[in-house]
């Protein structure tokens, strides 16, 4: 592990899988299960170019390095998180493959170009901006609420960046599925794979993983659901394999 300077309140956590490390802080939004699932669900090519939007501290690009030799870009609008993403690439010795940028996803195609990526991943903010004054941490607010971008902004940006035949994968709340599918088609991203994520058996889906293809033909596969917790209230076998670096059906479905 390379040495990098940590800010006050920052710490280095173990990502468990493949001995990766990650800088985090309680003052900013830490990665969650959503990002881990997205990093295993999305399609990857053995090499090429990928980009992760709303990358935060760069956790999805870090996880993707365990599945592909592609060069990977990450785009984050918040300066503090973008800086953490840069240093997370450095501490893992991945700075030559991971290119972490501070920027607005709505305009990043002006810098990186149209149709330059084989695949796009994104774990966007899920919630509309609430009404009234909010006494909350600005980093937490931006991660949870559509302050800097909304769902259409995210899908429009993804469509500009991905090449024809390329893939765009997203994790979002299951309740937004119809909105996601309609917007994907509007921007020529044909939904191709869906997987629902349930906290426990018998409960409704809390999240959905969805992947579309740029200019793809209409046809969608609904994959088996992922049940996060087993009867003993522990992570299911599949998630344990993901966290500890095992090969998973999420990776190859």
UniProtKB/TrEMBL annotation:
Residues 36-140 form the Methyltransferase small domain. InterPro entries: SAM-dependent_MTases_sf, Small_mtfrase_dom, tRNA_Adenine-N(6)_MTase. It comes from the Bacteria. Pfam families: MTS. Gene3D superfamilies: Vaccinia Virus protein VP39 (3.40.50.150). SUPFAM superfamilies: S-adenosyl-L-methionine-dependent methyltransferases. CDD domains: AdoMet_MTases. This is tRNA1(Val) (Adenine(37)-N6)-methyltransferase.
């Amino acid at each position: 592990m390379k040495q990098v300077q940590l800010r006050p309140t920052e710490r280095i956590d173990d990502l468990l899988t493949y001995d990766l490390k990650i800088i985090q802080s309680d003052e900013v939004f830490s990665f969650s299960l959503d990002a881990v699932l997205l990093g295993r669900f999305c399609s990857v090519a053995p090499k090429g170019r990928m980009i992760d939007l709303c990358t935060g501290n760069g956790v999805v690009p870090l996880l993707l390095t365990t599945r592909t030799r592609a060069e990977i870009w990450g785009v984050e609008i918040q300066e503090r998180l973008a800086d953490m993403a840069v240093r997370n690439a450095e501490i893992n010795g991945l700075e030559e493959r991971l290119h972490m940028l501070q920027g607005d996803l709505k305009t990043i195609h002006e810098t990186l170009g149209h149709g330059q990526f084989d695949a796009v991943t994104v774990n966007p903010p899920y919630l509309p901006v609430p009404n009234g004054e909010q006494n909350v941490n600005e980093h937490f607010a931006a991660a949870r609420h559509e302050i800097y971008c909304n769902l259409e902004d995210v899908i429009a940006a993804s469509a500009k960046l991905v090449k024809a035949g390329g893939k765009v994968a997203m994790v979002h709340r299951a309740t937004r599925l119809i909105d996601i599918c309609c917007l994907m088609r509007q921007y020529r991203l044909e939904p191709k794979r869906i997987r629902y994520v349930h906290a426990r058996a018998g409960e409704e889906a809390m999240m959905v993983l969805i992947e579309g293809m740029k200019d793809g033909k209409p046809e969608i596969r609904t994959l088996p659901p992922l049940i996060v917790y087993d009867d003993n209230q522990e992570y299911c076998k599949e998630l344990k394999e993901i966290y500890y670096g095992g090969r998973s059906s999420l990776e190859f479905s």
